[in-house]
Design goal:
Blueprint lengths: L3 E6 L2 E3 L21 E3 L1 H15 L7 E10 L4 H10 L3 E6 L8 H15 L3 E5 L10 H9 L3 E10 L4 E8 L2 E8 L2 E5 L11 H9 L2 E5 L31 H11 L3
Parallel strand pairs: 1-4, 1-6, 4-5, 5-11, 6-10, 7-10
Antiparallel strand pairs: 2-3, 7-8, 8-9
Helix pairs in contact: 2-5, 3-4
Amino acid sequence: MSALRIMVPIKRVIDYAVKPRVNKAQTGVETAGVKHSINPFDDLSIEESVRIREKGKAPGGVEDICAISAGPKKAEDIIRKAMSMGADRGILVDVKEGEDLEPLTVAKMLKAAVEQEKSNLVILGKQSIDDDANQTGQMLAGLLGWPQATQACQVDFGEGDTVSVTREVDGGVETVRAKLPMIITTDLRLNEPRFATLKNVMKARKMPVEKKTLADFGVTVEKRLKVLKVTEPPARQGGGKVEDVDGLISKLKELGAI
């Protein structure tokens, strides 16, 4: 098996524990003064990449783990987190604060990055929790012409550049097999991301982060989608109480449920 050069795309999003609020203009959610962190699915991708190296899963070994993100300077924090978990280096693609990139634009950028870095395995979250598009991995595979395995809950390596991925589907799980180079997107049951030690956090702070722009990858920001309006979901109605089974049946008949 060839030595792995793993690219791990990561995204800075509103922290999963924060309840998003729609902004006054109703063009999106409020981001000013809101805690941000690494996308949880991308956390799994970093962890899996590091485990592949640590556990010697790939017969050819791991030559390089590169974390890449597109965003403002603040996004450098999540790249340093990735390096504190075990990534060898990081690339930050400068994008203005508040300028959202559509999945196809991100996929085009990653295609160019993969070719420049000579990566042969890309592991990324199946979706980001801000737009929940679940498109970038699939689009990247299409642009590169590589095989893909989405929603991975287990990754195993065989002989001859073969990778087996167990993936979650509606009816349970299925196992697919493909050869490198390939794209893998991660699901929640794949692993439990580690907490970086203080020593590694301090070490990551001193590591350089390579700065690039979309132009370095030959990509421009193109808007194909337009958000017309964003509103809060309607408040849930409170439930009713019944005294006994007969009351429940009567209520269900009244609602047309039975």
